[in-house]
């Protein structure tokens, strides 16, 4: 069946998120901003979004878009010969998060041997995401809990685009909720896009749309906050970066529909600032 177009709502549009994290509220500010952010993020997928998505290839049907599993691809590759205990790791919010090479992630994906979680914002997920993945956005402090209906011993792979700041925060949250077999794609979603691997969304090409632009926001807080995170948001687009040992941080944004005048919200453990994107990009946020 030609899967280049399909209705994300699967015939029934719904505004109710499938049970995932503890909260049923919809976040109205950046995760971690402290304003309008629930303790858990809504669990979104093509069955709960009233959007028409396309895929970037002729792929099998995804019979259950809420399970985070890819569709059943024909002729899957052999299992990747990786020692998961030997993977590189990050320390994130007191959790050790494993970095999975993208080649291994693709093999697990085509074999249907992992569930995939998009840790970015709703706008970014809608624009383009791994076909079959679900949205469960990262939250400050790796809160957000687990995902209802998913066994804590199942393999879960999280991803984001930066390449692994948001995904490692979400992975740490899953581990805090008792999930034991969690990974993040080391190279991130942008590499997945560049390689033309299976995706679904409303737009493709260079991460999702010609309107995507790149920005870097540099800032400083007290060095006592080293290891915590700074967040930036525009609407439902999020990004985060860890605070270094010297208190400096650098948030790399790839947002759509923004320009130098677009208000951006930057939130750290020490302060929250809102101002024009261009102004913030030209200086140091303190």
Mean pLDDT: 85
CATH architecture of the largest domain: 3-Layer(aba) Sandwich
Instruction: Tell me the helix content.
Output: 10-25%
CATH H-level name of the largest domain... which superfamily?
Rhodanese-like domain
- Placed side by side, the strands forming the largest sheet appear as 3-4-9-8-5-7
Q: In total, how many beta strands?
A: 17
CATH topology (level 3) name of the largest domain: Oxidized Rhodanese, domain 1
Number of self-contained structural domains: 2
- What oligomeric assembly is this protein in? single chain
Beta-strand share of residues: 25-35%
Alpha-beta classification: alpha/beta
Output the CATH class name of the largest domain.
Alpha Beta
Counting DSSP H or I runs of 4 or more residues, the number of helices is 5
H and E string: EEEEHEHEEEHEHEEEEEEEHE
Largest sheet properties: 6 strands, mixed
Q: Which ranges are low-confidence, i.e. pLDDT below 50, for 5 or more consecutive residues?
A: 1-30, 32-41, 206-210
Radius of gyration: 18 Å
How far is the first residue's CA from the last residue's CA? 54 Å
- What spatial form do the alpha-carbon principal axes imply? globular
Region (Disordered): 28-81
Domain Rhodanese: 110-201
Protein name: Rhodanese-like domain-containing protein
Pfam families: Rhodanese
